[in-house]
Amino acid sequence: MSLIVFCATNRPGARTRTVAKRVHNFLGELSKGAGGPIVDYLDLANLRPDIFSTDCYSQKPAWFLETFQAPILEAKGLLVCTPEYNGGFPGVMKYFIDMLKFPESLVDLPVAFIGCADGQFGALRAVEQLELIFHYRKAHVYGERLFISKISSVFSADGSVGEYEERLQKLAAGFLSFVNVLKGERAYHGP
Ligand SMILES: Cc1cc2nc3c(=O)[nH]c(=O)nc-3n(C[C@H](O)[C@H](O)[C@H](O)COP(=O)(O)O)c2cc1C
Asked: Which end of the chain, N or C, is surrounded by fewer C-beta atoms within 10 Å?
């Protein structure tokens, strides 16, 4: 079992990806130091075009089952980094959720969210929409969220996330504790 940091967009050059990779590093170091789980990274940029065939509603490609479905089912926690596109989370993320095995994929899964946007609300809308869906799918939603606003101006030359660096670390540490507190095995007990 592992923790997963997840990039919820497939847009080439997405700033959300830079944030996701940064928090992946923090969480990896923290977890290692605490003898915690391995921290993996999943990115919607790695979805292959055949997942968009309508056949996939009934049958998923083997690569999808192996690369995305199995890690999500086995995950101990999921930290989702999402941008805001047109006042919501990316359409590709909803399609991805719809491709996951129903109903068990998100049940009992501890999940946290980081929003990234150029706008002043830092993808608040995108995060809250995702929270609704994850609640509906019976995940355990972590109460702390981080909203990175005006994202095009926050990165420093050294690749850090400027003023958000400390808050990213705090969120990563808090989420790790949340996962440890919940700790229980994930088990689907029916609808
Ligand atoms: C299709 C699209 C729609 C967008 N809509 C919004 C929006 O509704 N609100 C906002 O603050 N920024 C919006 N943006 C700008 C993003 O906030 C900006 O690209 C930021 O870097 C986060 O997205 P990224 O991870 O794709 O880079 C949009 C960007 C794209 C590509």
From this structure: C
Domain assignment of residue 62, yes or no: yes
The CATH number of the domain where 178 resides is what? Answer: 3.40.50.360
Residue of 84, 86, 151, 153 to test ligand 1 pocket, by largest number of atoms within 8 Å of CB: 84
Domain extent at residue 71: 2-182
Structurally, the chain folds into a number of domains equal to 1
Distance (Å, whole) CA 64 – CA 174? 30
Is residue 22 assigned to a domain?
A: yes
Task: Give me ligand 1 centre to Cα 103, in Å.
Answer: 30
In a domain, 190, yes or no: no
Q: CB of 118 closer than 6 A to ligand 1?
A: yes
Residue nearest to atom 14 of ligand 1 (CA): 85
9 CA distance to ligand 1 middle (Å)? 10
In a domain, 133, yes or no: yes
What's the rounded mean pLDDT across residues 154-180?
A: 92
Ligand 1 centroid – CA 81 distance (Å): 13
| DSSP per-residue codes, 111-152 | EEEEEE-SSTTTTHHHHHHHHHHHHHTT-EEEEEEEEE-SGG
Tens of pLDDT, residue by residue over 50-102, are 999 999 999 999 999 999 999 999 999 999 999 999 999 999 999 999 999 99
Strand ranges of the sheet holding 38-43, from the earlier edge strand across to the other edge: 38-43, 2-7, 77-83, 110-116, 140-148
